[in-house]
Every structure is written in C-alpha cells, then in structure tokens.
Amino acid sequence: MQTQIQPKTKGKPGFLRKHWMDILVILVVAFLLFLLFRSIYFRFNFQKKWDTFYYHFVTNNGYRRLLTGMRNTGIIASLGFLIGLFIGTVIALIKVIPPYRKITRYAQKVCNLYVAFFRGTPIVVQLLVGYYIILPLIGVSMTPLASCVTIFGLNSGAYVSEIMRGGIQSVDSGQLEAARALGLSFPTSMIRIVIPQAVKNILPTLGNEIITLVKETAIVGYVGAVDITKFFQDHAANSYEYMVPYLIMALIYIVIVAVIAALVRLMERRLQNGNRK
C-alpha cells in the first residue's frame, strides 16, 4: 500500500518579513524628520522662540482667545455646511425636474446664475463684497460671525448643488419610476427614495466640502471675525515671533481635518454594513 507524500507547504511569512520595506521607509522618514527638527532647534534657537510663545499663550491667557477662535471656526464651518446642504439640495431638485413648465425653466436659469456666481468668484471676494457692500446697501446689520456663516452657507450651497445633482443622477432612474408607479408624488419620491441613496454615493465628497469650509475659514479675519488663523496672526504680531505660532496653527488644522476625515470614513463603513444587512 503506497503512501502519498504530501508536498511541503510554506508557512505564512511573519509580520517583519512581510512588512520589512514599510518599516524601513518609516524608520528612514523618522530619522530624516529628527535631523530636520534638530537642525531647526539649534539653528533658529527654538528654545527661546518656544519660551516667548509659552509666555504669551499660557502666562497671559492667550489660549482663551484661541478657544474662541476654534469655536468660531466650528460654528462657521458647521452652520455654513448645513445652510449649503439645504440650499444645494433645493437647487439640485430644481435642476433635475423635467423643464415642462415655464416656471421650472426660469427657476433653473436662476439657479444656474446663482451657481455660476458663487463658483466663479473667490470666497474672499464674496465675503468682502457681502459684508462691506451688499449688507450696508440693503440696510442689514449683522455681526462678523453671522455674516461669515451666511456667506459661507451661500457659497457652499453652490458647490453642494452640483455634488447633490451628480449623486441624484447616479441613482438608477428605475428607482424614481417605480416610486411614481406606486403612486408617490415627485417630491415624495425624491425625498424618500432617491435622495437617501444619493447621499450614500456622495458622502465622501460632502466630507471634502466640510474640510474645505474649515480651511476657508482662515479668511474671516478680513471682516473682523476671530478664528484660528486670526488668533495666531495677532499672536505672532504681538510677540514678534512667527515660527512657533504658525507651526502650531498648521498642526491644529491637520488634526481637525484628520478627525473629520476619520468620522466620514466611519459613517461610510456604517452605511456599507447597513447595505450588507
């Protein structure tokens, strides 16, 4: 009776053997960063710069104004996004409605002009024109923070409208036809059937829009609002020290963007798990 010889199977490679190249790259990058920071520390007298920053930031309670700036940044970005999401959804619905009636065609032309204006001009121009020209002309008095929220919301609405329109058009047209065949009206079909599916498709892009709004809040100092950037600019001007404040400012923005990106990825995973179930 012959016995079959089983071929030898190689075991799975260990972690170090499998990822040795990644570990090597990380070590090289870490070493280069260490050399860079060491050079900055001794060449630019970093300890003295840090002591100056610490004195103005901690001893003189400068951190309180930073907390106010971070709060204002969050308010402008979050409320501006919510306003933009509402406006963008309405514009997207108007654009996807079949233009059978004159009022629909006129509404679509108005929406196209709105989108063209806000996408065709820089946000800083919109902020300056809105705060210093349009608001005084119409006799409306608003605080710098409220005006920033309004203008950022209007700007975001133009971009979200195109994002939402693309998401709606990415949903199979049969979904809308089936809903209408069941007796649902067009608005109800869009709100309950099409838009929820569209939001799932465009969630990463909406996350990018939130990140863009957070970074664009750096210009609100033009109208007297205090945000993260405005705080560090004033702090650097008062202490005559720019290196440490601006490095910390960049680090804060990186952390905020990383947190938002992580939350968006978490929402994507939950939506994907819901679809599998």
Explain what you see.
With 277 residues, this protein is mainly alpha-helical. The protein has a single domain (66-276), classed as MetI-like fold, CATH 1.10.3720.10. It has 11 helices and no strands. α4 runs antiparallel to α10 (228-239) and α10 (228-239) packs antiparallel against α11 (243-276). The longest helix is centred in the first third of the chain and has 34 residues, at 63-96. It starts with 14 loop residues before the first helix and ends with a helix.
- CA-CA gap between termini: 52 Å
Question: Which CATH C-level class is it?
Answer: Mainly Alpha
Question: Secondary-structure element order, as H and E?
Answer: HHHHHHHHHHH
Overall form:
flat
Mean pLDDT comes to 85
CATH architecture descriptor text: Orthogonal Bundle
Strand elements, count: 0
The total of helices stands at: 11
Q: Provide the number of structural domains.
A: 1
Can you tell me the CATH superfamily? MetI-like
Radius of gyration: 26 Å
Comma- or semicolon-separated keywords:
MetI-like fold, 11 helices, mainly alpha, flat, 277 residues
In short:
The protein has 277 residues and is mostly helical. The chain is 81% helix and 0% strand.
Give a topology summary.
Layout: H1 15-18, H2 20-43, H3 46-59, H4 63-96, H5 102-120, H6 123-137, H7 144-170, H8 173-181, H9 186-216, H10 228-239, H11 243-276
